[in-house]
Design goal:
The chain is α/β, with parallel strands linked by helices. It has two domains: about 190 residues, 3-Layer(aba) Sandwich (Rossmann fold); about 80 residues. Helix content is about 35%, strand content about 20%. It contains eleven helices and 13 strands. Strands 3-4-2-5-1-6-7-8-13 form a nine-stranded mixed sheet, sandwiched between helices. It has a four-stranded parallel sheet with strand order 10-9-11-12, with helices on both faces. The protein is globular, with a radius of gyration of 20 Å.
Length: about 325
């Protein structure tokens, strides 16, 4: 697993030479996505809500899925989650059991989501949806799959990291996009941007004209656990789409981040790697700390030795989403 190339997130009006050279290949990638999306898919008997994005890597989909599941459960709906289980070895469909499954079997995100609702992993999302329906799902939240045609969603929510936007606006490998912004957003029922007020303003200034779907804002808030982070020396590591955002969150909490180890998204956490970090932290008098998503990939013996920062999405105004859900009978 490789890190996201830095040139993917340069300003769209100032592309690097490499981005310009790779743009023809990006056109071929976009054409392949378009062909794939023309393939037929199933229309299940229950509503499927797709929580996806336009870029490779994360944009905050899992916290959005968690918040949406909680919203639907509050209304009394039998919610199930279907995920491809990125990074897991099981083809599925299989229902995730947090007591028995490991991240290398089902993926880290499904393990997190399984704490909120019955969660299924399936490389064939259509089979995963059918398994969920057979098990009694009344509504399905599909984690990712916006560019996968096998299931026709009743509602599509495109999540975007407000601080990073859509990168340099080019398709893989010239940029982070799985498909052109205007093409992808034309299928979105809702665009949910995740970030603080400054990031939201930046996104609107750069991409606002292309966001035609209803635009909802949300931000990640750290859950209070009683931990006093003020002046706490920490050695942080994160294998998420944007590790720097996690390190910035720790600084905002008042922690002294002696060093942040940025890993590739879903990167495995080996014993050798963790022992090296622990030795460095011990020598510096620091505490090892990571994200909730990374914590589920820790070997069991390490889970009490690494502090976890838990964040949850707070949606600024649910009205737009609630109206869309009501039209689906939810």
């Amino acid at each position: 697993m490789t890190r996201t190339p830095a040139f993917w997130y340069t300003p769209p009006d100032r592309p690097t030479l490499l981005a310009r050279l790779l743009t023809p290949l990006g056109g071929l990638y976009a054409a392949g996505t378009a062909r794939r999306l023309r393939q037929p898919g199933i229309s299940p008997d229950v509503p499927v809500i797709c929580v996806g994005n336009l870029v490779a890597g994360g944009a905050g989909k899992t916290p959005v899925a968690m918040a949406l599941v909680a919203r639907l459960k509050q209304r009394g709906h039998a919610v199930h989650v279907v995920s491809r289980g990125y990074g897991g070895s099981l083809a599925g469909p299989v229902r995730v059991d947090p007591l028995h499954h490991q991240a290398d079997e089902v993926g880290d995100e499904p393990l997190l989501l399984a704490a909120f609702a019955p969660t299924w992993v399936a490389r064939d999302r259509a089979l995963g949806v059918e398994a969920a329906v057979a098990a009694g799902a009344g509504v399905i939240v599909m984690d990712d799959g916006f560019q996968n045609p096998s299931v026709k969603p009743a509602l599509s929510i495109v999540v975007v990291d407000a601080a990073r936007g859509f990168g340099n606006g080019r398709c893989i490998p010239a940029g982070p996009l799985r498909e052109p912004v205007d093409v992808g957003l034309s299928r979105a029922d809702i665009v949910l941007a995740v970030g603080d007020d400054h990031a939201q303003a930046s996104l609107s200034a750069m991409w606002g004209k292309q966001i035609r779907a209803p635009h909802v804002q949300g931000a990640l808030h750290v859950l209070e656990t009683g931990m006093d982070w003020q002046d706490q020396p920490v050695l942080a590591f994160a294998g998420i789409a944007n590790p720097e955002r996690f390190f910035a969150t720790l600084r905002d909490l008042g922690a002294k981040v002696l060093r942040g180890e940025a890993l590739a998204d879903h990167a495995p956490l080996s014993q050798a790697f963790l022992q090296r970090l622990e030795a460095e932290a011990t020598a510096a008098g620091a505490q090892l700390v990571t994200t909730e998503k990374d914590a589920v990939r820790l070997p069991p013996a390490w889970r009490s030795r690494v502090l976890t920062v838990v964040v949850r999405l707070v949606v600024k105004d649910w009205t737009v989403i609630d109206v869309k859900l009501a039209k689906l009978g939810l």
